[in-house]
Amino acid sequence: MSPEQRPPESNAVAVLLAGHRSFLAFLERRVGDRAVAEDILQAAFVRGLERIDQVRDTESVVAWFYRLLRNAVIDHHRRGAAHGRRLDGLRAEIDVPPEPLPDDRAAVCACLMGLAAGLSSAHAEVIRRVDLEGVAVKDYAAEVGITANAAGVRLHRARQALRQAVSKSCGTCAVHGCVDCTCGPQSA
Asked: In this predicted structure, what is the pLDDT of residue 19?
């Protein structure tokens, strides 16, 4: 059977099959991954063969198929972007530390304030106001009449001193994060 005697659908299929390499190269340039391009092309061939009867002229089948490929690439990128947004949302959800239970928070605050009492009065005060009461560093600085930078340095040094006091008092609990606060002072 000569090409002129074949049904139009089979001529269109032959044209599509002959363009396989060009279609694959077209997709690979747009998605950057040969395996993904092959998957998209295979799915496009399936969709194209399901709709091949819509093509009236075998000369326009290539343009029609490129339009189908462009739409497939757009869909691929949209799915990737949606997947990325879902991952970002999950990542943000995971990154939010759980709020301690009120009883745990009270126990930790009592323990920390007991240890902070052994610090200098300026260090104990900055820990209490900023970390436990939630006052902004710049507001604390204004309250005590120092610059915000000086308050930041004071807070940093107070936290270092408190970290050392916790480590000395609680030993390994300080590393593992237990909150029972039944540790007695560790001997050095």
From this structure: 87
CATH of the domain at 38: 1.10.1740.10
Q: How confident is the model over 150-174, as pLDDT tens digits?
A: 999 999 998 898 888 877 777 666 5
Residue 7 C-beta-side C-alpha neighbours within 13 Å:
6
Tally of structural domains, the chain: 2
182 within some domain = no
Alpha carbon distance 153, 158 (integer Å): 8
Q: CB neighbours (10 Å) of residue 142?
A: 14
Q: Which amino acid type is present at position 49?
A: L
Tokens encoding 107: 């126990």
Give me the domain span that covers residue 137: 102-176
54 neighbors 97 (Cβ within 8 angstroms): no
* Inter-residue contact 69 to 40 (CB < 8 Å): yes
Residues in the chain: 188
**3-state SS, residue 104:** helix
What whole-number distance in Å separates Cα of residue 78 and Cα of residue 154?
Answer: 49
pLDDT in tens, 6-58: 445 667 788 888 888 999 999 999 999 899 999 999 999 898 888 887 776 66
With tokens 């091949």, the residue in question is: 52
CA–CA separation, 27 and 33 (whole Å): 9
